[in-house]
Design brief:
Mean pLDDT: 88
Helix content: 25-40%
Radius of gyration: 15 Å
Order of helices and strands: HEHHEEHEE
Shape: globular
Number of domains: 1
CATH superfamily: Histidine kinase-like ATPase, C-terminal domain
Distance between the termini: 38 Å
Strand content: 25-35%
Structural class: alpha+beta
CATH topology: Heat Shock Protein 90
CATH class: Alpha Beta
Number of helices: 4
Oligomer: single chain
Strand order of the largest sheet: 1-2-3-5-4
Length: 145
């Protein structure tokens, strides 16, 4: 019998990195919220932190869906790390307007996560817009670096 090495985070919580690709459509966002909640539960987040992560993923993905080019995909990565979970989401867009231009949506997102960043880059005659957020199991301040 052979043994396969797993990361310390996966061994501790039984959670591995997850990559999900869906159509950039509002009807797909609940699926991504469910992934986020499941990962947070497996990582022993408290109930408030689980709900905060669900809502943060919902807000980030909704901002990206609104910016997405027609018939594009929304890609979302969930990466468990020692002190929390990192979520990265991206879409291809026709315009370079960053998610933070939606002041209310961005304010909600930054209130729900320990850290949030955005990136807009030019690719193949269009733009790629990304949001990365970091969530922690409870209300304790954790440095996301």
């Amino acid at each position: 019998m052979s043994e396969v090495e797993t990361s310390p985070v996966a061994r501790t919580h039984g959670v591995r990195d997850v990559e999900v690709r869906v159509w950039a459509d509002a009807e797909q966002v609940p699926l991504l919220r469910s992934f986020a909640a499941d990962i947070a539960m497996r990582m022993d987040f408290d109930l408030d932190a689980i709900e905060d992560l669900r809502m943060a993923v919902d807000e980030a993905c909704s901002l990206l869906v609104r910016a997405a080019a027609p018939d594009s995909a929304l890609l979302c990565w969930f990466e468990p790390v020692d002190a929390g979970v990192r979520v990265r989401a991206r879409v291809d867009a026709e315009h370079a307007e960053p998610p933070s231009s939606d002041a209310m949506g961005w304010q909600i997102l930054t209130a729900l996560a320990a850290a949030v960043t955005e990136q807009v880059e030019a690719v193949d005659g269009g733009h790629r817009i990304s949001v990365e957020l970091y969530a922690v199991p409870g209300t304790a301040g954790v440095d996301p670096r």
